[in-house]
Amino acid sequence: MKITSPPTDSEIALALRVLEGCCLLYSQYTALAHKYKAVKVLLNILASRGPTEQRVCLDALILLMLDSPSNQMDFD
């Protein structure tokens, strides 16, 4: 299956909510988020998307940085 269109606002918001849930359930996901530079991706979403994604993005950023010095340093 080849995806030809960019994701919709609701698809991005849903994906971010799934990321939040994973981080809440398994603390190892915050380390994986650091490995794949998720904080930088979220900052890009925050700067370039609409209010729906921005709201969810802020929630996800807080969860990624909670008890994760490496993700906090990525935020700086």
TrEMBL record:
Organism lineage string: Eukaryota, Viridiplantae, Streptophyta, Embryophyta, Tracheophyta
SUPFAM superfamilies membership: ARM repeat (SSF48371)
Highest taxon of source: Eukaryota
Identification of the protein by name: Uncharacterized protein
InterPro entries named in the record: ARM-type_fold, Cell_div_Cdc14
Organism: Arundo donax
